[in-house]
Amino acid sequence: MRVLIVTYYWPPAGGPGVQRWLKFVKYLPEYGIEPVVLVPKNPSYPIIDEQLWKEIPQHIEVLKLPISEPYRFAKLFSKSKSNKMSSGILPKENPSFIEKLMLYIRGNFFIPDARIGWVNPTVKFIEKYLNQNKIDALITTGPPHSLHLIGLALKKKIDIPWFADFRDPWTTIHYHNSLRLNQKSQRKHLQLESEVLKGADAIIVTSPSTKKEFASKTTKPVHLITNGFDEADFDFSESEPDAFSIAHIGSLLSERNPRVLWEVLSELVQESKTFAAQLRLNFAGVVSDVVKSDLEHYNLMPFTTFYGYVAHQE
Length: 314
Fold this sequence. Notes:
Number of helices: 10
Number of strands: 10
Order of helices and strands: EHEEHHHEHEHEHEEHHEHE
Helix content: 25-40%
Low-confidence stretches: 74-89
Largest sheet: 7 strands, parallel
């Protein structure tokens, strides 16, 4: 069985989005499934992890198609090199006027997202590819959710079995409110989401909450396949811990700030010198200024290390 997987994030992209299907592709052949992967030829990735090139199985066929996207131009207006809004991951928490304007344009002129320009060329490319190559099923994975419109168009044209994989929700994703969508744009998002959920042969999601949400919006089967880990990436030899370590790996934004946890840890530090000597708080990835402010307020900074983005292998 041959399956065509359409994904935006692929090495050398870093971050969590790339790893789900990079790892699935590695293990699908063990289940009699031969994956073929279609990715952008010249994408604008916000995070680069060169080590992930080594993760691509040698026997996998990877197709590349050029993409035209506005983010590389948006970066010209951004003074901050760490600006995630212009890169397409997340809106900044305190955007400037120019950044607010770009968010409005991104939210209301590029629906469902700024990769919408890749849809029509990709549909034509896949149609031609399918005429010359045997493919038994199609998988699209988002965000960016515009990739699901590729599956929707192909489903209407040639009725290929199509699975839509949602690594995050669509209209309820946490940063949608930051995009300053007008009512027309909000309706358009809801319409496209509905068409995709009803048009796909099956939906795949990563969390029970998204499964519950989508199951209320479609009669098509919704399957839960959580994100996991590749055992080959880890050394499981036993070791004696010398500290009480809490790690957050990924983007820790204001709305995810566990203030009660900081308060409790602060109390424990004051009550127990032994606990204070062992406590370690480790953060890999983007951390909100609000989180940092709270850590300082609760006197936890002496126990805290910020690593920034860390390569997957590390």
